[in-house]
Design brief:
mainly beta; Immunoglobulin-like; five-stranded mixed sheet; four-stranded mixed sheet; 5 helices; flat; Catenin-bd_sf; calcium ion binding; cell membrane; cadherin binding
C-alpha cells in the first residue's frame, strides 16, 4: 500500500509540475484521498483541455439481493468535485435499469433500488452517470460508466441435477471400494461467502456406505457384504450449503446401489443320498434319473457342471448337465450281467428286515427285496444325533438261515438354527465412558453342529446404525466387543439402552438372528470400577439406603406438621385476644363523642364500674390490643393540696398521648380520682355530702371551651355524670 501511495504521489508531482502532459484527457485515480463509504466523486472539468484532475474513479457498487424492506434500498451516492452544495449541479443516471430498477436524487446524487433484485436472474447492472449544470443544461464532465453488482444471499439450495443415481459394486468388496460420485450444484454466488460451498453427508445407508464430504465420492464402509444376504441398497445423500453449518439449505437425492455377484459360493446338494432305480433291461445311454445341486450365486457363476468321482459305479454310469434346468442327468454307460447261484429264476434270494428289538424301527425302513434303508420320519440332529439298529437278512428258501448286521447312522447337520448370544450378559457402561471404549465382550453359540472353521460375524442392525450410542466391533474370532460412541452418559437422561446385534453364521444356508442387549448406565470411579447401577442411587447420597431415606422423609413430615400446628394455635390465640369480652366496660361504646343519657341510661354501660376505682387499677393492661411487653401500672404522682383538677386532667391527657402502648384509634379514658385540695372538691355527685343547691358551678365557665358543655349543663341545673371525660 505504501508503494502504491508513493508511486501515485510521484505521478502527481510529474503531472502537476508540468514534466508530463497527457496527449488526451484520461481519468486519473488519486489514492491520497478516499471518500466516504458508498460515495463516489465525479471528476470536475477544468479550463485547460490538456489536464484533468479527478478526485476519485470507481467501477462498481453493491446492492443486497432479495431486499424486502419497506423503504427503497440505498445503493450509494454520486458527488462531483464541482458540486459546492449550492444546488447548481444536477445528477443524471442512464443504462441498465435506470428509472425502473434504480433511481437517483438529482440534487444529492443518492442512488436507490426501488424493487427487489435476484442475483440469479441478473448478477450486475451497467449504468452511466453524469453531472449537469442546472442552468445551462451542459455537462460539467464526461459521462462515466459504473457497475452495480447484486450481492448474493443464501436463497438457493443445492440440487442434484443428475439424480436419482444408479450404481453397482461387486459383493465382498473391501472397505473403501469406489461406488459412485454424486455432484450437487448451488445457484448462489461461489465467489462470495459460503452460500455455494456444499458439503455431502449420508442420511440413510449407514453403516454400509460412506461419502466424502467434499468430493461426493461414495465408497463401501463394511467388508464382506454378501449379495446372497442382501442385494439392493438405497442410500439417501444430502448436500448442504454454508459448509454444512447450521442454517444452511440442503437438497437430497437417492442412490440405488446393487451388489453384483461374484463366484463365492460352491454348489451344494440338498441331500447327501439319492435313490435311483434302473431296470436291468435298460439300454446303454438311457436316462436313469436326475439330481440337482443348488448354487446361490447368479448368472454364469451359478452354472453347474456335474461329474462322477472315481469309485464304485464310475464305469457303469455317466452324468451330463441339463443347461436349461441345471440338473445332472445320470445315464447308463454299460450293462453288467450277473448268474445268481442257486437261483436259476434270477430272482432275489434274500429278504431284509429290521430287528424290532432295536430303536431304529420307527425312524427307518428297509426294502425287503433291495435292502435299501430309508427314513420314515423327519430326523432332528439336535434331538438325536445318532441311531443304532440291526438289519437281518434271511434266505427266502430257508428263513432259518439269517445274518445280522449292526447299522450306525449319524445324522448330518443342516444349518437350520441361527447363532445366538451364548449367555445373557449384564452389560453396564460408566457415566464417564469415552468414545471407543469396549464395555463388553460377547460370544455366540449355535445349536447346529458347527463344522470346523465356522465363523460368526457380528454387526449392528440397520435401524440402530443411524447415530448410534453404541456400536459393535467384530474381532473376527467368533467374539465381538460392544463399543461406546459417546463422550459420557447420564443416568438422569436415560438409564437403559437397548442395542440390537445381528449375528450370522458361515454355514449353508446362512442363518442370522437379532439379539437385543440391555445396557445399563452406572456410576463408576475414575478407574472404571462400578459403584452403583440402581435408580435410587441417582438421588441418594453415598451410604444411605432406602430405609434411611424413608426415615429422613418421615422426620421432615413430622416437623412440618408441628410447625403448621404451632402457627394455627398462634393464630387462634391472637383471634381470641382480639375478641372483646362481655365484661369489658368499653364493650358497648360505639361513638367516642356520645354524651350519653345520664344516670338513668343503664343500657349504655355498667355504671357500677365507674364507682369502683379498684376496677380501673386492676385493668391497667389493655384488652383490646396485644401487648408487646408487660406494662407496669403508672405511678400516680403526688398532688399538692392547691393543685386543681384542670392540671390533673391535662397531665393525664399528656401521659396518654405519650404512651407508646396506646392504640392508634380513638379510645375511652376514665379518670375516677379527682385529687385533694380542689376548690370545687369532687365533680362527682357520688358520695357528695351537699345538695345540688349548695354547689356553685360558675367557675366552670373559666376553664375554657373544653368544659363549655359541662358548664352549660350545670348552669341549667341538670344532673349529669362528670366522671366521664372524653
Amino acid at each position: 500500500m505504501l508503494t502504491r501511495n508513493c508511486l501515485s504521489l510521484l505521478l502527481w508531482v510529474l503531472f502537476d509540475g508540468g514534466l508530463l502532459t497527457p496527449l488526451q484527457p484520461q481519468p486519473q485515480q488519486t489514492l491520497a484521498t478516499k471518500p466516504r463509504e458508498n460515495e463516489v466523486h465525479l471528476p470536475g472539468r477544468q479550463s485547460h483541455f490538456q489536464r484533468v484532475k479527478r478526485g476519485w474513479v470507481w467501477n462498481q457498487f453493491f446492492v443486497l439481493e432479495e431486499y424486502m424492506g419497506s423503504e427503497p434500498q440505498y445503493v450509494g451516492k454520486l458527488h462531483s468535485d464541482l458540486d459546492k452544495g449550492e444546488g447548481t449541479v444536477k445528477y443524471t443516471l442512464s443504462g441498465d435499469g435506470a428509472g425502473t430498477v434504480f433511481t437517483i436524487d438529482e440534487t444529492t446524487g443518492d442512488i436507490h433500488a426501488i424493487r427487489s433484485l435476484d442475483r440469479e436472474e441478473k448478477p450486475f447492472y451497467t449504468l452511466r452517470a453524469q453531472a449537469v449544470d442546472i442552468e445551462t443544461r451542459k455537462p460539467l464532465e464526461p459521462e462515466s460508466e459504473f457497475i452495480i453488482k447484486v450481492q448474493d444471499i443464501n436463497d438457493n439450495e443445492p440440487k442434484f441435477l443428475d439424480g436419482p443415481y444408479t450404481a453397482s459394486v461387486p459383493e465382498m468388496s473391501p472397505v473403501g471400494a469406489y461406488v459412485l460420485q454424486v455432484k450437487a450444484t448451488d445457484a448462489d454466488d461461489p465467489t462470495y461467502g459460503n452460500s455455494a460451498r456444499v458439503v455431502y453427508s449420508i442420511l440413510q445407508g449407514q453403516p454400509y456406505f460412506s461419502i466424502d464430504p467434499k468430493t461426493g465420492v461414495i465408497r463401501t464402509a463394511l467388508p464382506n457384504m454378501d449379495r446372497e444376504v442382501k442385494e439392493q441398497y438405497q442410500v439417501l445423500i444430502q448436500a448442504k450449503d454454508m459448509g454444512g453449518q447450521l442454517g444452511g439449505l440442503a437438497g437430497t437425492t437417492l442412490v440405488n446401489i446393487t451388489l453384483t455377484d461374484v463366484n463365492d459360493n460352491p454348489p451344494r446338494f440338498p441331500k447327501s443320498i439319492f435313490h435311483l432305480k434302473v431296470p436291468e433291461s435298460s439300454p446303454i445311454g438311457s436316462a436313469i434319473g436326475r439330481i440337482r445341486a443348488v448354487d446361490p450365486d447368479f448368472g454364469q457363476n451359478a452354472e453347474i457342471e456335474y461329474n462322477i468321482v472315481p469309485g464304485d459305479g464310475g464305469n457303469l454310469f455317466d452324468i451330463v448337465t441339463d443347461e436349461a434346468t441345471q440338473e445332472g442327468i445320470i445315464k447308463l454307460k454299460k450293462v453288467q450281467s450277473c448268474i445268481l447261484e442257486d437261483f436259476p429264476n434270477n430272482n432275489k434270494m434274500e429278504k431284509y428286515f429290521i430287528d424290532w428289538k432295536t430303536d431304529g424301527d420307527s425312524y427307518f425302513a428297509v426294502d425287503g427285496t433291495e435292502g435299501t434303508i430309508a427314513t420314515n420320519e423327519l430326523l432332528d440332529r439336535e434331538s438325536t444325533a445318532q441311531y443304532n439298529f440291526s438289519v437281518i437278512a434271511s434266505k427266502v428258501s430257508n428263513p432259518l438261515l439269517t445274518s445280522k448286521v449292526n447299522i450306525l447312522i449319524n445324522v448330518l447337520d443342516v444349518n437350520e438354527f441361527p447363532p445366538e448370544i451364548s449367555v445373557p450378559y449384564e452389560t453396564a457402561v460408566c457415566e464417564n465412558a469415552k468414545p471407543g471404549q469396549i464395555i463388553q465382550i460377547v460370544s455366540a453359540a449355535d445349536r447346529d453342529l458347527s463344522p470346523a472353521g465356522q465363523q460368526f460375524s457380528f454387526r449392528l442392525s440397520p435401524e440402530a446404525a443411524i447415530k448410534p450410542n453404541f456400536t459393535v466391533r467384530d474381532f473376527r474370532n467368533n467374539t465381538a466387543g460392544i463399543e461406546a460412541r459417546r463422550n459420557g452418559y447420564s443416568r438422569r437422561q436415560q438409564e437403559l439402552y437397548f442395542l440390537p446385534v445381528v449375528i450370522e453364521d458361515s454355514s449353508y444356508p446362512v442363518q442370522s438372528s437379532t439379539n437385543t442387549m440391555t445396557i445399563r448406565v452406572c456410576r463408576c470411579d475414575s478407574d472404571g470400577t462400578i459403584l452403583s447401577c440402581n435408580v435410587e442411587a441417582i438421588f441418594l447420597p453415598v451410604g444411605l439406603s432406602t430405609g434411611a431415606l424413608i426415615a429422613i422423609l418421615l422426620c421432615i413430615v413430622i416437623l412440618l406438621a408441628i410447625v403448621v400446628l404451632y402457627v394455627a394455635l398462634r393464630r387462634q390465640k391472637k383471634k381470641d385476644t382480639l375478641m372483646t369480652s362481655k365484661e369489658d366496660i368499653r364493650d358497648n361504646v360505639i361513638h367516642y363523642d356520645d354524651e350519653g343519657g345520664g344516670e338513668e341510661d343503664t343500657q349504655a354501660f355498667d355504671i357500677g364500674a365507674l364507682r369502683n376505682p379498684k376496677v380501673i387499677e386492676e385493668n391497667k393492661i389493655r384488652r383490646d390490643i396485644k401487648p408487646d411487653s408487660l406494662c407496669l401500672p403508672r405511678q400516680r404522682p403526688p398532688v399538692e393540696d392547691n393543685t386543681d383538677i384542670r392540671d390533673f386532667i391535662n397531665q393525664r391527657l399528656q401521659e396518654n398521648d405519650m404512651d407508646p402502648g396506646a392504640p392508634p384509634y380513638d379510645s375511652l379514658a376514665t379518670y375516677a380520682y379527682e385529687g385533694s385540695g380542689s376548690v370545687a372538691e369532687s365533680l362527682s355527685s357520688i358520695d357528695s355530702v351537699t345538695t345540688e343547691a349548695d354547689q356553685d358551678y360558675d367557675y366552670l365557665t373559666d376553664w375554657g371551651p373544653r368544659f363549655k358543655v359541662l358548664a352549660d349543663m350545670f348552669g341549667e341545673e341538670e344532673s349529669y355524670n362528670p366522671d366521664k371525660v372524653t
